[in-house]
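## Example pair
The file below holds two records. Each record gives the amino-acid sequence first, followed by its structure token line.
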Amino acid sequence: MLDPTLLRTRLDEVRAGLATRGDGLGGDLDRLVALDAERRAILPVLESARHARKDVGERIARARRGGEPVEALVKAGQEHAAAIKEHESRLETVEAERREWALKLPNLPHASVPVGRSEADNVEVRRHGAPPEFDFAPRPHWEIGPALGILDFERGARLAGARFAVLTGAGARLARALINFMLDLHTGEHGYTEVEPPFLASTDALTGTGNLPKFEDDLFKVAGEWDLYLIPTAEVPLCNLHRGEILDGRELPVWYVAYTPCFRSEAGSYGKDVRGLIRQHQFDKVELVAYAAPDTSWDVHEALTRHAEEVLKRLGLPYRTMLLCTGDMGFAASKTYDLEVWLPSYEAYREISSCSNTEAFQARRAGIRFRPDGRGKPEHVHTLNGSGVAVGRALVAILENYQQRDGSVVIPAVLRPYMRGLEAIEPAGG
């Protein structure tokens, strides 16, 4: 949620920043500004009515002590009470509508974010490794996995429908190896605290991260009377872990990592990446989240991005780091780096991690603050998140980049201790 002070003191900057996101948000902003003005107009009138009622109450008390008539004063008091009730009701309505419109507006882009309309305007920051050169025609993972007997799309569809898959044998073990490797790396070397959160989240939690109300169509809601949704990412529980709390600024930054399954309906994305594991309704991810003070959050953003990159480096996967433009960033982000891994089946780099600083946008929605010195006036903390990394896409990248002419797939050296020493996944009978 945007800082309401910005709407009053730097409205032109807010309007210009939102315009670069290309969402046609001018009308939403105008309505929010109008509601804010109405709220500020009601407050002094309400306060005046309350003061008048209090004054009348004191006069009634004095009159009764002096044996004077109070009928006129009582009537005046009743009129003031009715006016207060009316103003409070209107204020409540305006506040509710104001919050509703405020929740629709995305975050403002940081000054360092390039202005652009789509992924074509993203900027490459760096790349690591070179795409493999094959002396045979490489196959896509949706052929490699079934041929090895480790990936089954037909049974996944039979169990749950399209965009579900089943990993078996060495495939399931490889996914688990990736999860354990990432958790060990981030907790052992990068200093994160591991969390096992619920895989369900409430409306309040999803509103805190910006998934609701705008992206409800992308979520799976639990049937019945439950106010719960399957989480689309561990960012939701991790960024709400301190919901409504005031943190000690001396303990910041705080780093959390969690493995969870993730669930997304991918509303509106049908026709894109319909083959394989790239865009599934259920997938695994290791998520990184940090809480930081505003004066250090940009350094934390760079560090968190490097932590995600380290996963790909140690897996030996070629990737590039992209700075997203204003028109391609997520709703809550102020600045985002995408890590894109090379996939031979696409002959292109594809996103495997997004690392974002949301500044105080999510913390303002979730009511998360900190006291810089452990005391004094609290202010909103900055929250940051990133995939460290998406397990399914890492598995895809391994199958495609490490495939061999004989149909086998070499296991990256860093994963072999998690694979009981297995060096390669061989074709049946191999």
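Second record, same layout:
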Amino acid sequence: MTKPVTLSNEAYKALLKVKGKEMSFSDAVMKLVGETVQKRDFKKFAGSMKSSGETLEKLKSQIAADRERNTEHL
């Protein structure tokens, strides 16, 4: 079954770029929806990292150092 959908010109042009020549508009929408769902599904990993306090502190220190190094380049 198909459903008519109204898009703004801006949305249409953006979707056209995503779909390219090889993909249908339906396929392009499904691709985008799938990517969004995958990005939001990070919650399934919550609590999966079972580490000692020492390991977590090392990880936090490394993240802080990486952030500081990255902001120096800005």
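Notes on the second record: Residues 53-72 form the longest helix (20 residues). The radius of gyration is 21 Å.
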